[in-house]
Every structure is written in structure tokens, then in C-alpha cells.
């Protein structure tokens, strides 16, 4: 039993197809073909608006869903991190309920796959029975060098717990200001990693800390009671500082890129050389607006042909988990960037970033990418 769809516009993950194109899937949504109306036969369902493959959320923290509306907006990165650390603990039942609701919200808004940061095993049960695809990024942090082994071993334990439910698991560093070189090296040497992500250049607070050992992030360590007297200012921007520990041959998703400038991009492209195509920049504009009120220079990333993908970040810093909402926000703030390009970020680029483009991200034969109808502000999951 085939299903056939057509609409005023049909975006296939790469481009808008000629008018009167028809998407044909089997009953489970596996793409059989895309053909002109003349060849499609009977029973073509005409929907209003646009057809688009399911969205990829390249950066989320499902386990923080219970922090929705708990953290005040606009306090900046340091205040945000302090609040997350302080508020994370909650009844497990409450955490599980919030995750379930958040996941349903993702499904309803057309998300089919998620790159999800995990600091705990809290999300294992929900992921076991989930219809969403997850790549689980087991995140580790620890700024003093002596804790590197212990922190890595703890991450390894979480890694193995997730490996029991899925092969799609990596161990990843949190951010340049929260991970020691020793811990970065342990992660770089972890041979099971194929895909790594890191929060990068989220705010000027990060640069001030790494470069000059100054700024609000000092307060974070004071608050946590962690002695960082060993740390010497590096004189480098945060991306420059971590770059030697980004291994060539691995695929990376750099998340946020709010303060990324041309010199950062030049250095990145030089470091990765021909492998720059395995580097992805993830934008989470609603989270940036929530935390610091500053958005990344998206035009600069586009001019430099960076591979862009989109993420929601968590409900601790977003009012919804919707890639569609992130797209709408980007369109409003960066009207010169073409819709086709932005839709690619949400679909095929995201699928490539999570190494699942053989399954998701475009209407190509054999894939089961999900089928969305978008009509103005409305989104409807058809398959
Ligand atoms: Zn994040």
C-alpha cells in the first residue's frame, strides 16, 4: 500500500522540486520515489503549504526538561550554569514525566532524530521505547587535571549503560572552560568515538576566562568551591585553546558559535584542512536569546561555507523543543539567508552531522525520514 503526497511546494532535503512533484512512500513512510504528477497514478493526497522531510535536532539535553521556566532569562552564561547545577537535582519521577512530555513535544513539532547530551542515565528508560532516533553524547566535565581519570571513568560507566540500548553513543567534553587538557586528551584517545560534540564559543564570558582568567566564570568555580589557582591565563580565544585537542579524522559538532569571528573560522578551516567538511556548527538561537540575548553571526558562518545544523538546547533555556521554532526565529533575524539553505540545516545537514543521512534528512529512495506538512505557522506530521 503506497501513500502519495503533493503540495504547492516540495522540499526534498536539498532543494525545492519542480511544481507538481509527488512523493511516494510505503505505508511505513519509507520513500519509494518522487515522480511528476503525470506518472503518479491515482490517490495522490494534495496538502496545502509545503512538504519537508522530518527535522533533526542536533543538540538537546532531554534530561534537563524539568528545568522548564525555572531559570530566569538574560542572566548570562555563568548565572545559567550555576542555576543548572543548583536546580538539576529533582525527584526522578518528576524528571521522567518532564522528559516524556518534552519528547512528545519534539515528535509533534516534526523532529525525528536528536543529538542528546547526557550527564546521567536518567533518559535511558524513555529512549529504550522511543520512536525517535537518538545519538547519545555522554558529557563529561572537570577542570582540575587530577580529576580527569575519575571523571572519564564515570563517563565510561554511563557510556556502557547507554550502549546496552543503542550503538549510537559517544563520550564528549562539555566546554573549554569546564574540561582540563588531560580530560580532553582522554576523550580524544577514546577509540570508540566517531562523533564528538562540544559547547563552543557560547559567550564572551568563555573567552575572558580562557584567555585572561577573568570575568564572571571565575565566580562559577568560587561558588562550586573548586580551587583553580593552578590555571594560568592561556592568552588564547577559547576555540584556539581547544583546537589542538580536536582530532582530525573525527566528526565534530561545535554547538552555539555565538562569538565565533573570522579569525576563529580561519583557524578552524586551517586546522581541519580537507576534513573541514566533517565539521558542523550547530545553532541554538532561542537558547542564546534566553541566556545572553546575543545571537551568533549566522551570515558570517554562511559566507565561510560552514556546515550549519540546528538544535533546541534544553528546556532549561528554551520555551519549546521545536526546530521549526528555531527556523522561524532565524528567518526573522536573518532575512537575507534563503529559506532553502535554512531548511537544509534542519534536515539533510542535521542527518549528516549525526551520521544518519542513510536513514533521515531527505526524500531519497529507501530512507524513512518522516514527512512534514508546513503551512504558515502550522506544522503537521503526516508520516
Ligand atoms: Zn547545550
Give the helix/strand layout.
Blueprint lengths: L1 E9 L10 E6 L4 E6 L7 E10 L1 E6 L16 H11 L4 H17 L2 E8 L5 H5 L4 E8 L7 H16 L5 E5 L7 H8 L6 E6 L3 H9 L4 H8 L13 H5 L8 E6 L5 H11 L6 E5 L1 H7 L6 H6 L3 E4 L12 H11 L5 H8 L1 H6 L17 E5 L2 E4 L2
Parallel strand pairs: 1-4, 5-6, 6-7, 7-8, 9-10, 10-11, 11-12
Antiparallel strand pairs: 1-2, 2-3, 4-13, 13-14
Q: Can you walk through the features of this model?
A:
The chain is α/β, with parallel strands linked by helices. The chain has two domains: 2-52 and 376-381, Urease, subunit C, domain 1 (Roll), CATH 2.30.40.10; 55-360, TIM Barrel. Helix content is 33%, strand content 23%. The chain has 14 helices and 14 strands. The chain has helices spanning 77-87, 92-108, 124-128, 148-163, 181-188, 204-212, 217-224, 238-242, 262-272, 285-291, 298-303, 323-333, 339-346, 348-353, and strands at residues 2-10, 21-26, 31-36, 44-53, 55-60, 111-118, 133-140, 169-173, 195-200, 251-256, 279-283, 307-310, 371-375, 378-381. The strands form three sheets. A six-stranded mixed β-sheet has the order 3-2-1-4-13-14, with no helix packed on it. Helix 4 links the parallel strand 7 and strand 8. Helix 12 runs antiparallel to helix 13. The longest helix has 17 residues, at 92-108. The protein is globular. The model has no long low-confidence stretch (mean pLDDT 96). It binds zinc ion. Zinc ion binds next to loops.
